[in-house]
Every structure is written in C-alpha cells, then in structure tokens.
Design goal:
Elements: H1 2-26, E1 30-32, E2 45-46, E3 62-68, E4 74-84, E5 89-94, E6 97-102, E7 106-111, E8 120-127, E9 130-138, E10 143-154, E11 170-181, E12 186-189, H2 193-200, H3 205-214, H4 221-234
Antiparallel strand pairs: 1-4, 2-6, 3-4, 3-7, 4-5, 5-6, 7-8, 8-9, 9-10, 10-11, 11-12
Helix pairs in contact: 2-3
Keywords: Signal
Signal peptide: 1-22
Length: 235
C-alpha cells in the first residue's frame, strides 16, 4: 500500500511538473514547424535603438502569434510584440532583448489586446503600391473590410514666448480603410457615409440604398465592422 501511494504521488508530481514546464515554455516565444534564418528567434536582427511610443500602433507590449513567410511554414507563438509603423517592422521582446523583422515578412499576426473579446488580426495582402499588412476589420461572405496604418510627421511647433506646443517632431498614425468584394481587389474608401455609400453604388444597389436610408454612424473601426456585418446579412 505504501509503495502504491508513493508511486501515485510520484506520477502526479511528474505530470504537474511536465505541465508547468510546458506552460512556461509556451510563453517564452518559440519558433515551430520550420526555420527562419536559423532555428531560434535570436536569428532576428536586434533593434538598433529605442523609439518613441508614438511610432507604434500600440504603445504597450502585447502577446501575439505570427505566421512567417518562407519555404516552410514558420510560427512564432505567444511572445510580446509591438508594431512599429514608422519603421514598418515587428519588434519582439525575447529574454530581455528586443529583436525585429520587416512586417512584410509575415503572412498573418494575432495580438491579444486586454479587454477585447477577440484578438486583433493582421494579414498580408497585395494592394496599390505593392504588398501591405492590413488589420482585419470584418470578413464577410460577400464583402470584407480592412485597415492599413500609415504615419505622418507633425513638425515641432514650440512657442517659447508662451511656452506652448511641442519642442520635438511628433508622429501621427493614420488609419486607411479598404473594402473588398469576395476575392476581388482592395479598394480604398473614406470612413464616412458618402465614402462607403459610393463604394456600393455600382456594386450593390441594396447596400447603397440601406446606407442612404439608414444613415449609419461611421466614425470608428467598430462602426465600420457593425455596418459590414449588417450588409453581409442583408445581401
């Protein structure tokens, strides 16, 4: 009996240890299913310097998983990530070292954003001007919507006499909205009733009439996603 209890306790301890070890390993950032310029994330380039928070789509580090392009399917799973819009790179924090890759090297990206029910998802697609990475706003059976982020530099406007304005240049990140019909090309639109309505004028009279009649609010990404859900149900 004593031997049996000891065996059961030992087996349980081994199971818990293995499980915890797996959990710890799972959250350290790992490459699976192939290689990308080497077998570990250390192969990525080191970030040359630190950058202001306004260079990033999100100021905080968020855990994410990435599918990278290459001859093999390569995944980087559950590692802290930032999207540097100015440098067009993804930054990884791994073992207290920050690495980066060109954002065009990804097929897809998922970021876990606190207080959001679903991960923020990004995919790489061809658009005017070549390959770009888009945030998925809504994927529908007929129509889908996406957001691509660009930036502009706001020059310093400090007024010494009144001690107002900014002493340094600032970066402003701008969302650019796109709609897509089925497997067709991406079309850039303005996020307002007229811009979205005009997109559907020749493509879908029913969608055009719905927007014209109901005058939906279109100020945010969320507003656009809700309209796209409604239109895909309607069409």
């Amino acid at each position: 009996m004593y031997f049996r209890k000891t065996y059961l306790i030992s087996t349980l301890f081994l199971f818990i240890s293995t499980f915890l070890s797996g959990q710890i390993q799972r959250n350290t950032g790992q490459i699976t299913g192939g290689t990308y310029s080497g077998s570990t994330i250390e192969a990525f380039s080191s970030v040359p310097e630190s950058f202001p928070n306004d260079n990033y789509l999100y100021a905080e580090w968020y855990y994410g998983s990435i599918n990278l392009k290459g001859s093999d399917k390569v995944d980087v799973k559950e590692i802290p990530i930032k999207i540097n819009v100015v440098r067009n790179t993804l930054e990884f924090r791994h073992q207290n070292v920050v690495k980066e890759i060109d954002i065009k090297a990804i097929n897809s990206l998922k970021l876990l954003i606190p207080n959001q029910l679903q991960p923020a998802e990004f995919i790489s697609m061809e658009s005017e001007g070549g390959l770009k990475v888009f945030k998925i706003n809504h994927i529908g059976d007929k129509y889908s919507s996406f957001v691509h982020f660009t930036y502009q530099v706001i020059p310093a406007d400090y007024n010494a006499q009144f001690d107002t304005g900014s002493k340094t240049d600032r970066v402003k990140i701008d969302p650019n909205y796109y709609l897509k019909e089925g497997e067709g090309p991406l079309t850039k639109v303005k996020l307002n009733k007229k811009g979205i309505r005009n997109y559907f004028e020749e493509r879908s009279p029913a969608a055009y009439d719905y927007i014209k009649k109901n005058k939906p609010q279109l100020d945010t990404e969320y507003d656009l996603s809700q309209l796209m859900i409604k239109l895909n149900e309607l069409l």
